[in-house]
C-alpha cells in the first residue's frame, strides 16, 4: 500500500524551491545546447574547422598548461615557507600572499600594460595570470599544511628519510586535494576571464566570444565558440574529478594533533628564501599599487569626477547588495536539504548548481541574452536578468559557507522546536537559520565582492546606461584613459580588501586557530 | 487505562530493519524505560513516538487518538509530546527565559508567571532566567530543557538518554529530580537508555530492546528475576547461567540440587541465578568450589569460583572474605529462574 504521509521527508516547498533554482541553473547550458542543435550541422562544422578556432584552442591549452603548474609551484613553495619554516615575518607574508586577490584580474593586467606597454600575447597572459591567481593555490595548500599530523613526518624521519624525501614522499602526497582543488579553480578562471586577456591582447575563447558577440550580436558563431568553451570547462571538471582520488588525509586516531615543529632556516637560507615572497609581493602587489598611484598622481584631482564616480559607486553597491541577498536566499533550500536530507535528488540538484557556476560568465550571459531575446523580450537587458546571472554564477559561494554553518546547527534543536509545536518551516526559521546567520553573512559577503569585481556578464546584460565601477573602469581603459580609470580601480580594491581578509581569516579559523 | 499504544510498529532505513513489529502499552502517569545496547533501535522507537519519523507499518495511538497508521500521520508539532534529548539541546541563541518560553504563544496571559513557575518546578533560581545556555552547568541545562518541554503541559514526555552526558554523581541526582517533577505532574514518561541500572531504578515498566525487537517488557523486579533468555539475563546484570535437569520444581546442576521457579517443566533446561543468590555457607554444607580470583569491591567483593568444570561468579561481604585458592562451600538462596527452552 502506498504511504500517503512521510514524516521524515523535507517540506515540499523547500524541495520545490531547490528544484526551481537548479532548473534555472541548468538554463544556460540547455540554451547553448539548444542553439547548437538548431544550427545545421554543416554550419557548425564549418565554424569549428577553421584556423581561427585552432589558434584559440592552442592559446587556451598553452595558457592552462603553463599557468597551472607555475601557480602550483609558487603556491606550494610560498605555503611551505610561511607555514613550515621560521622564515622572518612569516605571518606578514601569509597575509600579503592572500592580498593579490583584492586586486581584480583586469586591474592586474591594466597595471602591467601601462607599465610595459609592449607586453602582450602568451608570455604576458601567463605572467599576469600566475600573479593574479596563485593565491587560489596558496590558500588551501597553506591551510592543509597547518593541519597535517606532524607525527607522520616524525615517523618518516625515524624510518631514515631525509627532509627532502619526507617532503616529496610524505608531505606532497597529502597536499593532493588542495592542489587539485586550487588548480581547478585557477583553470576555470583562466577559461572564464575576459578583461585580463583583452587588455594584454591575448586571444582566448572568452575574448573571441566577446568580440564575436559585439560584431554579430546573437549570431551562431558566438554560440559555437561558447559551446567549445563549455566543453573545455566540462573537460577540466572531469579531469579534476577523475584524477583527484577519493583519499582523505584527515588525522587518524584520537587526541589532538601536536603542534607543528617549524623548520629552522639558517641566516643565509632565510635570506635566500625570503626572495620568493619578496619577488611575489613586488610583482603581484607592488606593480598594481605603484601603477595605480602613478596614474592617480598624474591624473591629480581632475580624475575624481564625483558626477561619474558617485553613481557608479552607488550602482555597484545596489547591484552587489541585491545580488548577494538574492543569491543567499536562493542557497538556503539546497543548503538545508544537503545537510538534513542528503540523497540522490539533492546530489543532482547540487551538481546542477555547481556546473553552471563553473561556466564562464560570458557563457552564462550569452545564454541569458539568447533566452530573453527569444522567449522573454521584456526581460532583455533588465536588472532582473543581471540578478539571475549573478545568482547562477555565484550561488556556490553562498552555498558553501551556508552549508557549513547549517551543519554546525544540531538537528536535535530542530526536533525540539517541532516537539514544542513549531512546524518544520518555523523550526528552520526560528532555530537553524538564526544559528546559521554568521555563515550566511560570510557567504553573502563573498557574493557581494564577486559582483563588485564582475565585468563580463554585467557588460552584456545590464540595462543601457548602467555603469558599475567595473564597467566604468572598463569603458575608460578601452578609451586608453588610464588616469581616469584609476579611481575606479582604487575603489574596487578598497571594497575587495574585506574579502581578502575574510578568506585569510576563514583559512585560519577552519583549523581552530 | 493505557495512554500510549504501539501496535506491531515496524520501521526500516533502506535494507536495515530498525524497528521490528514492536508492541508496547504505556499506562497513564507511569514511567517506562526502554533499555538496549546502541544500535538496538531504541532511539528510533522514541523518534517514531515523537513524530520525527513515520512507521512503515503498524499504528501509534495516544489516549485513543491515532497518531500514525496506514492512513493517518500527525506531525511532531501537532502531537504535544514533550521531548528531552541527550544533551538538553538548549537553543544556544536564546536566553534561559526564551528557551523555556519557546513553546508558549507570545500573547497568552500570564506567560511570564508560567515561566517563573516552571523554573520553580525544576528547582532553578529565577535569577537564572537572563542567563545564556553556555553559562549553565550540565545539570542546570537539563533542568531548563525539562522546564521547556513541560511548558506546553505534554501528556507524554520522551527522554532520550538525557542523563548520559552528566557526571556519575550528578546523573543520579538529576535523574531523581526529573522523575520527581514528572510524577508530581502526573506526566507519562518514556526513558530511553543503554544503562540497565538507570532503567531499573527509574521506571515502573522496563522494555528490553535487542536487534530491533522489544524482547521483553515487565516490571524492573520481574525482569531482573525472570528474564526470558540468557542475553536479557546478562544485559540486566551479572548472571550465572547453568545447564540443569528439571524435575518437579527442582533442578540438578553443578551446584547440586536447586529449587526453581517453574514446577511444571521437566527435562534438560538452562537455569539462571544472580551472583548475590550464591552465598558462602558457614556451616560447611552445600556445594564445594575453589576460589580462583577475588575482585575486591569494598563492602562486597566479586569471587570467581571454580565449581567442577565451570567457572562461576559469586558475591561475598567483606567479613566473609576467603583467600585465593581456598575451598569454600556455597548454597543458593531463593529460587533459580528457568530460562525459556526455545533459546
Portion in strands of chain B:
35-45%
- What is the count of helical runs of chain B? 8
Alpha carbon gap, first and last residue of chain B:
33 Å
Order of helices and strands of chain B: EEEHEEEHHHEHEHEEHHEEEEEEEEEE
Rg measurement of chain B, Å: 24 Å
Q: What order do the SSEs of chain A take from the amino end to the carboxyl end, as H and E?
A: HHHHHHHHHHHHHHHHHHHHHHH
CATH topology of the largest domain in chain B: Rossmann fold
Structural class of chain A: mainly alpha
By CATH's scheme, which homologous superfamily of the largest domain in chain B applies?
A: P-loop containing nucleotide triphosphate hydrolases
- Text of the CATH class of the largest domain in chain A: Mainly Alpha
Structural domain count of chain B:
2
CATH homolog superfamily of the largest domain in chain A:
MetI-like
Explain the overall architecture:
The complex is a heterodimer of chains A (513) and B (343). Chain A is mainly alpha-helical and 513 residues long. Chain A has 2 domains: 27-244 and 267-293, Orthogonal Bundle (MetI-like fold), CATH 1.10.3720.10; 304-513, MetI-like fold, CATH 1.10.3720.10. Chain A has 23 helices and no strands. Chain A is globular. Residues 1-6 and 250-256 of chain A have low confidence and may be disordered. Chain B is an alpha+beta fold and 343 residues long. Chain B has 2 domains: 2-232, P-loop containing nucleotide triphosphate hydrolases (Rossmann fold, 3-Layer(aba) Sandwich), CATH 3.40.50.300; 238-338, OB fold (Dihydrolipoamide Acetyltransferase, E2P). Chain B contains 8 helices and 20 strands. Chain B has helices at 42-50, 96-100, 111-121, 138-150, 168-184, 196-202, 220-225, 230-235, and strands at residues 2-13, 16-27, 31-36, 57-62, 65-68, 81-84, 156-160, 188-193, 205-210, 213-218, 240-247, 250-253, 256-259, 267-273, 278-280, 287-295, 300-307, 310-317, 327-332, 337-338. In chain B, a hairpin with a 2-residue loop joins strand 9 (205-210) and strand 10.
